[in-house]
Amino acid sequence: MSAATTALLELRGVHTHIGAYHILHGVDLAVPEGQLTMLLGRNGAGKTTTLRTIMGLWAASQGTLRFKGQPITGLPTPDIAQRGIAYVPENMGIFGDLTVKDNLVLAARNARHAGELDTARLDWIFGLFPALKKFWLYPAGKLSGGQKQMLAVARAICEPRALILIDEPSKGLAPSIIQNLISAFNELKRQRTTILLVEQNFQMAKALGDQVAVMDNGRVVHHGTMAELADDESLQQRLLGLSLGAHQ
User: Fold this and answer.
1) CA-CA distance, 165 to 52, in Å (whole number)?
2) According to a count of CB atoms within 10 Å of the terminal CB, is the N or C end of the chain lower?
3) Cα(43)–Cα(216) distance, rounded to whole angstroms?
4) DSSP string of 73-116, one letter each residue
């Protein structure tokens, strides 16, 4: 991250314990405003724990978290969300018994029913994910896996957010759905939405990432531009145990 780039979110020396387990061991992370930062690493490196700690779902046992320059360490999750941070968990977090419409209404802080949703923004979301318009009145639990992921992302962006945390959105999805997600995230990037994205699909990471942080054993062990990592197969092998070139 260049000196001229402002960090929207900063973690300094963050430790997280879950029960008897010490998961994060002093995470230092800066997420620059208006960019998409990839958070990569082997399974068990601490990526999901980092996202959940940012959202206050798991409490940091040490260190500081700052958003827009203000401390958010120890705040309850609803207060963190109210400051403009949305979270798309790996399990998507949708309400399967509710319709697509009702899922979006629940996610909108300023709408009590569908008539109060921002119609222009809703049309924009339908442009990104046409299936949501088609299945507007369907129970979300009856959607396909890809459609559920689209709904999960739509819930996060149904109102403008300053920062979106997304955990492995492409997991288990068909290539055509992954391409749809890439297009949607590129549109968010064009709007200067700040995104912190955990992903195991390295072609998706290469296509989308501006910055990258790589985790190992509960720490960030590398940070730089995604382009630099994508061009350095020896660095990929050292940090991730594979090369992007093998996933063309």
Assistant:
1) 9
2) C
3) 9
4) TT--HHHHHHTTEEEE-TT----TTSBHHHHHHHH-TT-SSGGG
